[in-house]
Amino acid sequence: MNDHMYEIIVDSLSAHVAVLDDKGVIVKTNRAWQEYGEENGLEGKTDSLGVNYLNICEAATACGDPEGELVVVGIQKVLAGELLEFVIQYPCHSPSRRRWFNLRVLPYLSEAEHWVMLVHEDVTPLFLAQEELQQKEEELRLKSEKLEEVNVALKVLLEHRERGLADLEQRMTANIHELVLPYAEKLKNSLKNPRERTLIDIVENNLNDIISPFLNRLSSLNLLLTPQEVEVAALIRTGKSSQEIGDVLGVSVSTISFHRKNLRRKLGLQDRTMNLRTYLLSLQ
Description:
5 strands; 5-stranded antiparallel beta sheet
């Protein structure tokens, strides 16, 4: 392969390539290097031939560029044979555009010259993608923190709500025990009619059910009980017979038997040996 073909190959690369002699002077550049110089207003010749690259890096270091000194050391070590390759990534921003490059310093494989080859590759898309990823991660972190704050706030509200409900239940229970049931008992004792006394018993039992978990438990079973089935269930639980329940509700015994069958079916009591009242008493 002749030198002209090598030149064509190097000029076909998108990377910016320059060859430095043992003093750090540029002796050869490819097409991409020269086009980059033209596009960015490079002073002097766009091919940069005769320019000392080490001096440029040292001047950049004097201006506060930390990568400049590292590049000088890397080139010198590759020239001295102490390194087979030196790689560094550095920013190269302009007023209108942000750019990053990857610099690779390689030995120039020639028996006649002890030179090095610089290969600058534009890695801006990679850096921009990394920045976007970091931004997304930060946004995700902030959203996660907000969700945690919302969860904590909801937990506090639920705890307040539970405490409030517990306090309300305690107050309601105390009020029924202290302000209602004593007077219901006095009223029952003053009545002579058995049916009226039975009605007071039902009122007392229902009040006790209100302050006990029975009705809530019965409702939580999602049995779709009718209002009269709930009444019958509550009276069965108190130990009332079908005749007594029929008298209280003003319906026939056969109607109560019909409700009993529906309750057993909806409660899943297929075994006839299971007592309906015993099961209802277990719903605490």
